[in-house]
Amino acid sequence: MSGDELSATPLCPSNLAYxxxxxxVAYGGSFAExxxxxLPCYWIYWEVGKALARRRSPEPLYQRWIDTYxxxxxxxxxxxxxxxxxxxxxxxxxxxxEAMTExxxxxxxxxxxxxxxxxxxxxxPV
Length: 126
Fold this sequence. Notes:
Blueprint: H1 3-8, H2 13-28, H3 31-53, H4 60-70, H5 72-91, H6 94-120
């Protein structure tokens, strides 16, 4: 598939819902809420990357993905995002922490839906 074909391909329903939610939180919520919303993407990719790094892949394209997300450079980024989250969490009110936690929980579910949609090759039913 060419780059033009990829850019013309509509997002599957789960991906569109996920990215729309992220944009909504980023534009309409606080910095802490936005951080809570993007944190699952960082953290889950790191965890999946680490797990797959132990197994490796004979397919070069997959191995490149595994090396990226299971590698130390990405790990440093995730650790920095987690540290920022911890620092902010110590200074936030209970209401702010609850809002951040809610965003984290919702996008954790969307992450699962994103991976599941790819596995099932989700498409629009109509």
